[in-house]
Design a protein that fits this description.
The structure is a homodimer of 212-residue chains.
Chain A lengths: L5 H19 L6 H8 L3 H7 L3 H16 L13 H18 L1 H16 L6 H24 L1 E3 L3 H22 L2 H16 L2 E3 L15
Antiparallel strand pairs in A: 1-2
The structure holds a DNA duplex (18 and 18 nucleotides).
Chain lengths: 212, 212
DNA sequence: GTCTATAAGGAGATAGAC
DNA sequence: GTCTATCTCCTTATAGAC
């Protein structure tokens, strides 16, 4: 293998590992499978990483950081908040259907972290990224729809992520797109109730009280 | 080891395997760990099961069948449907907090099935049990609260399970009980909207339209 | 029927040749 | 710096003694 900086090797191995995990699951991501995917000899692995766990840790860190990128571009301008949420959910769902293995991999990595003492801080970091991304999408959507959230946007974001996680698991289990669509309809309805017109006259009109 | 019928051995090994999986994860459930937990010599394993995969398959089947048992006893009589749902969610959540490893194990088994060709029918079976259990609880709750569901109860059940899955994952990641409580409040609010008083005069009164 | 002992292979990690 | 060859341990599964 040609000369390569350690940093480049680490990056290449992480990408290769991610491909292997998507294809074969966390269980299949052995050091041998990873170096084969990266086209490197086995010894290069421990030249770049101290251990397999170190790579997994870096991998989750990378994935969690880069995952919150491509969101919020799907939001239709000029739409009501209910439609915006529904469209955003659909965009996510289309991505899930196109690449189910990726979402499966995210779940597996979460559970792997939960079972590995040294990685116990990662699940929270992973979900924090989800929540932050969701909050940012919800803020953009609210602004475009000229509404505001009655709850802190971070809480609405958590609810949105709850829907998405539950939706994803159910679809992975039964691959029923129509049932998923109904779940998304309900999620959009329920979340839209948490928004109100931006003028503050409006709150006298809302009659769906949210108990806290 | 004393005489034991093959059926008894299989049952004992499955229970031992479940304990190991809860403690150490699916990854830790090696044949050696399982027989050690069951107090059997290694050879007994393959005397009772053809392979490790056969045991895992039987284990998931058993778990999925027996899991829908202890529900619906928590429903408070004489309560409104919103309160009943909220209480039911709390009962589940208390169980989750008391034994997080059990729920973690259920997720891991789901993902294991998704990654194993021969087990591809199990995820759907697992969720079908969840849905069926949820539907049964929702029916009992509606009856007690003298309301009826505006949607087929199977669909409401799917939404409830969506909430529970999402809620569980988030709590496993960040162990924030207060945030979980807020999610449960929202879930109870949102699902209660799907019920209406049993008298059929009532539907003119509901003003939360559910788009389909 | 039961269990000890072992086969056969895959895993992470490394020594040492180039 | 790089990689081949190997070490050591752990896995599933089985052969064969009792």
């Amino acid at each position: 293998m040609a000369r390569m900086s350690v940093a480049d090797r680490r990056a290449a191995l992480i990408l290769a590992a991610l491909r292997v995990i998507e294809r074969d699951g966390v269980h299949g991501a052995t050091t041998r499978a990873i170096v084969a995917e990266a086209g490197m000899p086995l010894a290069s692995f421990h030249y770049a990483f101290l251990s397999r766990d170190e790579l997994i840790r870096e991998l989750i860190r990378t994935v969690v950081e880069t995952e919150g990128q491509a969101a919020s571009e799907t939001l239709s301008e000029q739409a009501g908040i209910r439609t915006s949420i529904r469209d955003g959910l659909q965009a996510y769902f289309d991505l899930l259907v196109a690449e189910p293995n990726r979402e499966q991999a995210m779940f597996e990595l979460l559970h792997y972290s939960l079972r590995t003492e040294e990685l116990h801080d990662l699940p929270k970091a992973q979900y924090s990224t989800y929540w932050k991304t969701a909050a940012s999408v919800l803020e953009v959507g609210a602004k475009a729809a000229r509404v505001q959230w009655k709850l802190p946007v971070a809480e609405v974001a958590r609810l949105l992520v709850t829907f998405i996680s539950g939706l994803t698991l159910a679809w992975l289990a039964d691959r029923d797109a129509e049932a998923a669509a109904r779940t998304m309809d309900f999620a959009a309805d329920s979340l839209a109730v948490l928004a109100e017109p931006i003028s503050d006259l409006a709150d006298a009109k809302t009659n769906q009280s949210i108990e806290r």
